[in-house]
Amino acid sequence: MDIRFSVSGIGSRCLAILVDTLIQVAVQIFILLLLILLGVTFSKISTAASDKWIIAGVVLVYFALYWGYFSLFEYFWNGQTPGKHLFKIRVVKDTGRQITFFEALARNLLRIIDSLPSFYLVGVISMMCNKQQKRLGDFVAGTIVVHERQEDQPLLGHNSRMLTAGLYQQPVSEPPLQSPAGSALIQGDAIGRLKAPDLQMIEAFTARALDLDMDVRARMADRVANQIAGKMNYPIPEGTNPERFLEAVAYAMRAQSRF
Predict the structure, then answer these.
(1) Who's near 65: CB < 8 A, 6+ residues apart?
(2) Nearest-angstrom CA–CA distance, 192 and 119
(3) What is the pTM assigned to this prediction?
């Protein structure tokens, strides 16, 4: 099934990289001043061996700052760096799911080639040659940079009741989600059978649900809901909207600290 994305163009990505570069430069200046201060302090006791360790440390710090900055931010910030967050864009897999650490690392290791000969000329040319606006790092990692839809809202509206004590109640506009025993709550032991990737799969679907055709959206929701219910060993109550079921599961999972 096709999932449609609003692909980020060259302009927004250039502005984002400009912000990230300014942050990196500021950190580099701070580290340089700190090293100068330390060098003056320990200049009298320095040796040839210690000087080599200092140089090695500087190289390591700059390597970590150049590649680690993007890789770590994109992994822990769900595909965003401070620059990408400012301009409402993020990196995702071609399939729409969140990128892993190795995918974030792979796309950013190619950054040094994309930036050649200067001002990311290779990357810009690559982006202009394909409809998905991919640079070389994106091709290697199988990723794409997309705009966040500002109009997207959680499928639960403001009239929904809140999740409390790890138990979920349905929106007042729909009947509560009933278990076979007649309870309106999803049992905690059923949620405990799920893992973090299951929550990521649910969130990947709900994040793009509004972009899907209604028939594709309904089939995909039914497929994901049945897969999740199978892992939970928890039958979906008859007549329950699959999307409402997925929302209930996602909110219950987030209520547990391990998610």
Answers:
(1) 24, 27, 28, 31
(2) 48
(3) 0.59
